C-alpha cells in the first residue's frame, strides 16, 4: 500500500509557482507509532550535532582521548612488503634480477623495519608498557621479528611443496605461489604467529584478518601449524586460536576447527579451546571438529561433512554411514501432482 506524500505549505506554493517539487533538503520525521508526517528541513550542522551526541550516549565503540592504535592501512602495506621479502619476485610489479637482490632486499628491510617499529611502538603503548622503555623495546622486538624471516621462508617452502604435490590441478610451484590464496593466507598467518608469540597486541590480528578478507581463509595467529601444511580451495576454513596442527596435514574448504562453547566468554582466555590435529591427517570438506580436548590421531582421515566432538585414535577413517540419497524421476513426480524443488 502506498502512503500519501506530504509536502509543506511552502513547498506546495513553490511547486504551484515554479513547477518544482519538494527540494532534497527536506526529510520526513517518523515519531514513534506514527507514519509520514510533515517533512522537516535539516542542516548539516544539526546532523553533526546529533552524531556527536551519540558518542556520549552510545559508549563502547568510541576511542577518544586515548593512545594512538596501530594503523590498519600501514599494517596492510607492511604485510605486502613482508610477502615480497618472503617470496622475492612473486609479489613485485617488476622482475628482480639476481644482481639486484641484495640492494632491493636491503632497501625493503630498512623500510619495513622503520614502519613496523612505529606500529609495534603503538601496540606497546596500548599495552601500557612503561613510556621510557617504549622505543628501545619496539626496536628490539622488531629486529627479533625480522630475524625470524629465514625460518618462516623454510616453512613456507614446505607448504608450497605440499600444495603442489597434493593438487594435480597445479601446473607448477610458481602457480601455487602466485595464484593460490592458501599460500598468501598461510604466509600471513606464519608472520602474524611470530608477533603473537612476542605478545604484541592488535597487529597480529589485523594482519590475519586482512588475509582472511582477501582469501576467505580464517586462521588465527595463535594457532600452531607444522610444516608441509596445505588447505585445498580453502574458502570458509576456520582454524581457532588454540589449535595445534602437526606436520603433513591436508585440509579442504569449509573445515572448522573450533571451540565447543564460548558461553563463558573472557573466562576462557588462555584455555585450550580448539582441537589438536596430529601428523599426516587429511580432513575433507565441510568437517567440523570441536573442543580443546579433541585430538585427531596421527594418520587419520576424516570424511566430508563429519561433525566430531570427541577424539579419534591414530590411523582412523571417520565417515558417515547410512546417509540416504534418493533420485526421483522429475516427470513422474510432476504427473503425480508433486511439487518439484525449483529456484
Question: Could you give a quick summary of the protein structure above?
Answer:
The chain is of the alpha/beta class and 343 residues long.
Walk me through this protein's architecture.
- The protein has 343 residues and is of the alpha/beta class.
- It folds into 3 domains: 9-57, no CATH class; 67-218, serine acetyltransferase, domain 1; 223-343, 3 Solenoid (UDP N-Acetylglucosamine Acyltransferase, domain 1), CATH 2.160.10.10.
- It has 10 helices and 16 strands.
- It has helices spanning 9-18, 44-57, 72-86, 101-126, 134-146, 149-166, 173-179, 181-197, 203-215, 330-335, and strands at 26-28, 39-41, 218-219, 224-225, 230-232, 238-239, 244-245, 250-252, 256-258, 276-277, 282-283, 288-290, 295-296, 301-302, 307-308, 317-318.
- The strands form 4 sheets. The chain has a 5-stranded parallel β-sheet. A 5-stranded parallel β-sheet has the order 5-8-11-14-16. The protein has a 4-stranded parallel β-sheet with strand order 4-7-10-13, with no helix packed on it.
- Helix 3 (72-86) crosses helix 8 and helix 6 (149-166) packs antiparallel against helix 8.
- The relative contact order is 0.06.
- Mean pLDDT is 89; it is low at 4-23.
Please, what is the average pLDDT? 89
The CATH topology of the largest domain: serine acetyltransferase, domain 1
What overall geometry do the principal axes of the alpha carbons give? globular
Compute the number of helices: 10
What structural class do you assign from the helix and strand content? alpha/beta
Characterize the main sheet.
Answer: 5 strands, parallel
Question: CATH class of the largest domain, anyone?
Answer: Mainly Alpha
- Assigned CATH superfamily of the largest domain: serine acetyltransferase, domain 1
Ends distance: 27 Å
CATH architecture label of the largest domain = Orthogonal Bundle
Going across the major beta sheet, what is the strand order?
3-6-9-12-15
Report the uncertain regions: 4-23
Radius of gyration (CA) equals 28 Å
* Domain count: 3
Strand residues, percent? 5-15%
Helices and strands, in order, run as HEEHHHHHHHHEEEEEEEEEEEEEEH
Helix content: 40-55%
Let me know the number of strands.
Answer: 16
